[in-house]
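Consider the following assembly input.
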Amino acid sequence: MKGILSTSLNKVVPPVALLVVLIAIWQIATVVGEIPAFLLPSPFAIVDELVQFFPAISSATRVTGTNALIGLVAGAILGILVALVANFVRLVDSLLAPLVAAIAVVPIVALAPILYSMFGANSELSRQIIAGIAVFVPVFANTLRGLGQVLPVQRDLMRAYAASPLQVARTVTIPAALPFVFTGLRIASSLAVISALIAEYFGGPRTGIGSFITTAASGSNYSRAWAYVLGAILLGLIFYGVTLAAETFASRHRRR
Amino acid sequence: MKHSKRVSLGLGAIAATSALLLAGCSSDAGRDQASGSGDDLTPVKLQLQWTTQAQFAGYYAALDQGYFEDEGLDVEVITSGGDIVPQDALAAGDVDYAIAWVTKVLGSIENGANITNVAQIFERSATLQVAFADSGIETVDDLAGKTIGSWGFGNEWELYAGLNKAGITDDVSVVTQAFDMTALLSGDIDAAQAMTYNEYAQLLEAVNPDTGELYTPEDFTDIDWNEVGTAMLQDAIWADAERLDSDEDYAETTVKFLKAVVQGWVYAKENPEEAATIVTEAGSTLGESHQLWMTNEVNKLIWPSGSKIGMIDTAAWDSTVEMALATSNETGATIITEEPPATAYSNEYIEQALTELEADGVDVTGTDFTPIEVTLNEGGN
């Protein structure tokens, strides 16, 4: 018991200490260097704005978070399904590879206005789609790689056992693919938040974090803008933490 | 043997490259100093608030007609696509003068940007909230319960001031509008934000699917913030307050700069077609008829002047500041929380410039200005 407590403290304390030191240096620099707020806001000013606008920031975070979550779930499901199809039908794989590579590089700047025109400027759907697209690519790529992790010797063994395709999938393919799927989900979780946020710059209802960052930044009120960014950072951390926890839970039997 | 030879070759290559790079750096600095003392013209950088368009016709006309050169200035006009915040570039010392809306700069000044309004070029606000004529939206009160568009980025404050005044700030659903009118035309929003000189023309350049002809002004209603009483000051010329105070050359340059700019705007008033052409040739992507419309509408914001072009009217300034302190958006944020410092605006330089220009017989009041008729073509061409 004591061993577990001390090891988790050892893992948590150093990064937290580093964070505190960095913030202290930042605060001292802005005070001593007399750096104006429009160039670099001080951490105290940011926290001040965070406290003052807490209701607005939390509701904006909730909106962006909901969009990111819907995008994450939809994109992940689609990514896994398409990867499964691509794995079992070689033709689909070769057809999809360049298409997915192309989708991966389409910038949100270009995609967002088109989606807003298609699905309406007053619906959150376009942002969810953008988050979904951003999630689809890494989940698809990683799942496909994971599905291909079955070793020939394992496949031969299953053949020797006369295992049905479902048994093969359950015992060999999926366990081999699972770590890769979770890696893809972990990468995708932060991407979902970022993409949902950036999509808010280009239109849609004035509800998410992105809308208010631009309003604050246009008046050079970077302390307020960063207060909203803190909400986004927290959101990203929550998403990452949840996917990490899911991964740890799913692979708990594999830890030897 | 081989390994140490490769290492020393590598080190030698790095040393040679560094020597070349450093030599390049120092010779650049030397060249700059030499050109500074050798040239007669003072280099000046002007940061615009947006891309090349007739909203800035006066500056491009001054450049094209040589007014800057006559005053001994070599002006470089820098555009922004929304990526550069002009007042930040000015406050950081990247440029010498910037064009920006007063409301946006008031916020920057409160955050430490020490800059001064040296000329209020646009005396009237050009912001409209446009709706289809059959939408039933005639006044601000009709906006309650509707979906309205605004670009955000600090352009939304006149709208919120109007909503605050009508008491319906929480009764509307605001959508971030793209910098075009497709959301209104496709029916996604009930009322859209438009500038008289730009987006409003985009409506009139679009084809009405019901008639097959271009839309006419009768197809739309608009809420003009000047009439509602919540209009705020827009395009102004800003200069670095500290430099104005400490650097005499900069103060003199400011007067010369303003003289040339005023002459540029007078040129645009008297020769709108030529001014529109100058802007198009300077690299605008907008069509000719659209550019002419913009020049004409912008002229209406300047002429006839309340007193003289560029003079900062105390009543208008105070009204804008008052609204900046009081107007809150949906999160409860206001533009500023305390009164701006006295250095926020100064009529000293524009007064001097105007006195010298009037002595030369330049018409700086434009009392006889009449706008022209502009026919828009589809797509603004």
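Chain A has two domains: 1-35, 40-250. Ask yourself how this observation constrains the way the partners meet.
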